[in-house]
């Protein structure tokens, strides 16, 4: 199987869908002639032309609104945000329009749009460029939220998102764009709302999404090698819909849960998982549900401190050990 | 506002399972109406109403396990509203406030019980934990999983040493704890820790949760073997007269009797002749009973029960035979009433039909003696002329509580029993 980058996996997904469905088009700041700020759309403008890959002005509210309107009329826009942090000026379009129209039209109007881009800290770009809004968006009934951790998942989830009839907020990670992984040629989909156990274990469940999944896999290796603890790593992949069954099955097996999240802790994705476990896994728990999240502060600009802000494998190991 | 609570339907009952509601919410209820069917550790019982009115609320769904005394339902009189306390009702006295916490309703965790009933139990000072995991106002720090396992295994959390963070009791601690826990033991209770199985690598296993009956068997027999100083006397009787007697009895009367019937009758009559074995240890006294209530061990699915034939010394062989047959049939159908288990004074266990020649039984507390009856076997015996001949022999072993019965007394009893069994016509007197 070809080994390609997370970036290339996304690029392949766009190419597959642009080829398959003439209603699909890409749009965003510098996605066309400049090949994308992070080169995720490289080569696509040359190949598919200006009607299918469109550069926009620096006005997220405007082009997100354009995307909503196009989707309501039957097109399938894939709108890039250079950073998900920039979505905040377009929240009205995403939440009030994309998120509510299907409900408010009594199910008559769908908004089959993908809003995508990187949503991560840890790259020394400052507080206003380092937001991780998956919890905000997943808080809106009507929106779907996806956070792939691997090249394989990125491609399969992107194709599924483009084909989905609701708005999908697709959150990538600039630190993962260069990661390599096996990705099949051609189109395939990974259903939204299906988590994956990325590593089997029996002693503790590490539950994470996005890059934190890789942190957990590294922590699991340390736990096994140095402490004889076999951790199971559950990759949520989709935040909403959330695969509650896989989470509960894992905790029913291991009786311990440590939630790892690059989100901030307050009302974060891990808070939602903790509530789920408290309600549905109470009698399975042999330890409190613990969390390892980003430090609860705006993204720290100092590079040494910024390193400490996001969960790393050692922090996860320490938290797991504290529960035994 | 009469609340219907789980009644104590047998002397060993601590909780019951509400099998089926016979009345629905909103139904009219008369005194004497059957409200529900309740399964105790021994039998399925019908629960009568002692109240009249309307069944206003049901707190426990079908299948729910409820501790004795905990509320099951609410019956309101005409015009009465929930929350009111009717002044004339016999449940009116403000007993709950004065009652000791230990006697307040407690609930078994993990079982369906309405929030209202559970909250009442919690307010009464019970941590709401496992049945038995009630501790005097001190909250035991244990994980939910540890509590669930403790409940299933009958482990007392109080007194366990937790090995989790901050001394928290975790599943590991409960899995390695003795059943009954290491809590301060009642006087005479065993301080010895039970040795529980640890997982065997590569072994497939089936975990069968303890039924109410198995739990009672475990508790009572452990108590007996650890608290009662057992001793054993065995005799071998000449069963030939008994065989001839039985044959003649059946031919003459047309009624069928078994060797077990003959043994039961003899045990009862001998106990009237030597009443010191028909007794119980009462702490500061020994109680000798004036009549023989014969407990008969009957194997049933998943365990055994010991229903009682009352005043057995006065019953004819025919009556004993009929009584045993009836008890055995109803025991297997779980149709015996709790009072039919209560009040035994001496027990007989017969494994003869399984080919067991001789065995020692565990005393059925609080009784002082149990007789273990074996199979009739052909074997060489030395007769009175010092010749070896083929004999039919039956072995009987008495297990006695040495606090009540001494060896010589028990030996006299066994002598009386031998005389009756070797001259069974005496049983017709």
Structural commentary:
The complex is a heterodimer of chains A (324) and B (429). Chain A has 324 residues and is an alpha/beta fold. Chain A is 37% helix and 18% strand. Chain A is built from 12 helices and 14 strands. Chain A has helices at residues 6-20, 44-48, 60-72, 91-98, 101-104, 134-138, 151-163, 211-227, 244-254, 269-280, 303-309, 313-322, and strands spanning 3-5, 24-28, 53-55, 76-80, 114-118, 144-146, 168-172, 180-182, 196-199, 204-208, 231-235, 238-240, 257-261, 290-293. In chain A, helix 1 (6-20) packs parallel to helix 7 (151-163) and helix 3 (60-72) packs parallel to helix 4 (91-98). With 429 residues, chain B is α+β, with helices and mostly antiparallel strands. Chain B folds into 3 domains: 3-123, Beta Barrel (OB fold (Dihydrolipoamide Acetyltransferase, E2P)), CATH 2.40.50; 130-196, Dihydrolipoamide Transferase; 229-428, Chloramphenicol Acetyltransferase (2-Layer Sandwich). In chain B, 24% of the residues lie in helices and 23% in strands. Chain B has helices at residues 95-98, 115-123, 144-153, 171-175, 212-227, 240-253, 259-273, 317-332, 407-422; strands at residues 3-5, 15-21, 28-29, 34-39, 44-48, 53-58, 65-67, 71-76, 230-238, 279-281, 286-288, 294-296, 298-300, 303-305, 308-309, 346-350, 369-382, 388-401. In chain B, the strands form 5 sheets. Chain B has a 6-stranded mixed beta sheet with strand order 9-18-17-16-12-15, with helices on one face. In chain B, strand 17 (369-382) and strand 18 (388-401) form a beta hairpin. In chain B, helix 7 packs across helix 9. The interface between A and B is small, with 10 and 12 residues.
């Amino acid at each position: 199987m070809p080994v390609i980058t997370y970036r290339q996996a996304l690029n392949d997904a766009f190419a597959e869908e642009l080829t398959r469905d003439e209603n699909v088009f890409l749009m965003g700041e510098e996605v066309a002639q400049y090949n994308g700020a992070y080169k995720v759309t490289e080569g696509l403008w040359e190949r598919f032309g200006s009607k299918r890959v469109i550069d926009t002005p620096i006005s997220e509210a405007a082009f997100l609104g354009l995307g909503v309107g196009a989707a309501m009329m039957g097109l399938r826009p894939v709108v890039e945000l250079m950073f998900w942090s920039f979505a905040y000026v377009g929240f009205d379009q995403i939440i009030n329009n994309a998120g509510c129209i299907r409900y408010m039209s009594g199910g008559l109007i769908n908004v089959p749009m993908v809003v995508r881009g990187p949503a991560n800290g840890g790259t020394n770009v400052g507080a206003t460029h380092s937001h991780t809004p998956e919890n905000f968006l997943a808080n809106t009934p009507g929106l779907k939220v996806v956070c792939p951790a691997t090249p394989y998942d990125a491609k399969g989830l992107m194709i599924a998102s483009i084909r989905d009839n609701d708005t999908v907020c697709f959150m990538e990670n600039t630190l993962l764009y260069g990661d390599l992984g096996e990705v099949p040629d051609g189109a395939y989909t990974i259903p939204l709302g299906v988590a994956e156990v990325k590593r089997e274990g029996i002693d503790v469940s590490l539950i994470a999404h996005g890059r934190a999944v890789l942190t957990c896999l590294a922590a699991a290796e340390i736990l096994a090698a140095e402490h004889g603890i076999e951790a199971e790593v559950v990759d949520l992949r989709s935040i909403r819909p959330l695969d509650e069954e896989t989470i509960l099955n894992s905790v029913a097996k291991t009786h311990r849960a440590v939630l790892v999240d690059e989100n901030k802790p307050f009302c974060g994705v891990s808070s939602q998982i903790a509530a789920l476990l408290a309600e549905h896994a109470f009698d399975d728990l042999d330890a409190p549900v613990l969390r390892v999240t980003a430090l609860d502060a705006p993204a720290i600009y100092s590079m040494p401190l910024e390193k400490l802000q996001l969960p790393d494998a050692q922090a996860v190991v320490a938290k797991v050990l504290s529960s035994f | 506002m009469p609340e219907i609570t789980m009644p104590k339907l047998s002397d060993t009952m601590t909780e019951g399972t509400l099998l089926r509601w016979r009345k629905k919410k909103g139904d009219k209820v008369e005194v004497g109406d059957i409200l529900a069917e309740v399964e105790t550790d021994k039998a399925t019982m019908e629960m009568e109403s002692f109240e009249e009115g309307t069944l206003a609320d049901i707190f426990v769904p079908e299948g729910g396990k409820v501790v004795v005394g905990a509320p099951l339902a609410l019956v309101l009189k005409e015009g009465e509203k929930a929350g009111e306390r009717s002044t004339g009702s016999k449940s009116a006295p403000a007993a709950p406030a004065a009652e000791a916490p230990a006697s307040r309703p407690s609930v078994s965790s993990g079982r369906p019980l309405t929030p209202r009933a559970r909250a009442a139990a919690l307010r009464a000072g019970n941590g709401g934990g496992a049945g038995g995991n009630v501790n005097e106002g001190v909250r035991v720090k244990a994980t939910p999983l540890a509590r669930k396992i403790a409940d299933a295994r009958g482990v007392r959390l109080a007194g366990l040493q937790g090995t989790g963070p901050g001394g928290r009791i975790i599943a590991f601690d409960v899995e390695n704890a003795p059943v009954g826990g290491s809590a301060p033991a009642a006087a005479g209770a065993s301080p010895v820790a039970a040795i529980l199985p640890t997982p065997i690598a590569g072994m497939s296993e089936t975990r069968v949760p303890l039924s109410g009956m198995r739990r009672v068997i475990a508790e009572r027999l452990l108590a007996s073997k650890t608290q009662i100083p057992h001793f054993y006397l065995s005799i071998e009787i000449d069963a030939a007269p008994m065989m001839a007697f039985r044959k003649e009895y059946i031919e003459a009367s047309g009624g069928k009797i078994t060797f077990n019937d003959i043994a039961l009758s003899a045990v009862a009559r001998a106990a009237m002749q030597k009443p010191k074995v028909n007794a119980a240890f009462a702490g500061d006294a020994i109680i000798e009973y004036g009549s023989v209530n014969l407990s008969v061990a009957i194997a049933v699915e998943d365990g055994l029960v010991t229903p009682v034939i009352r005043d057995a010394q006065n019953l004819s062989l025919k009556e004993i035979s009929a009584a045993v047959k009836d008890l055995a049939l109803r025991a297997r159908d779980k149709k015996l009433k709790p009072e039919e288990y209560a009040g035994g004074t001496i027990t007989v266990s017969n494994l003869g039909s399984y080919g067991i020649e001789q065995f020692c039984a565990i005393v059925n507390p609080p009784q002082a003696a149990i007789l273990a009856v074996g199979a009739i076997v052909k074997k060489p015996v030395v007769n009175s002329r010092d010749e070896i001949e083929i004999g039919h022999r039956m072995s009987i072993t008495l297990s006695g509580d040495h606090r009540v019965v001494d060896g010589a007394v028990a030996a006299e009893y066994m002598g009386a029993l031998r005389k009756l069994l070797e001259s069974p016509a005496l049983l017709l007197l």
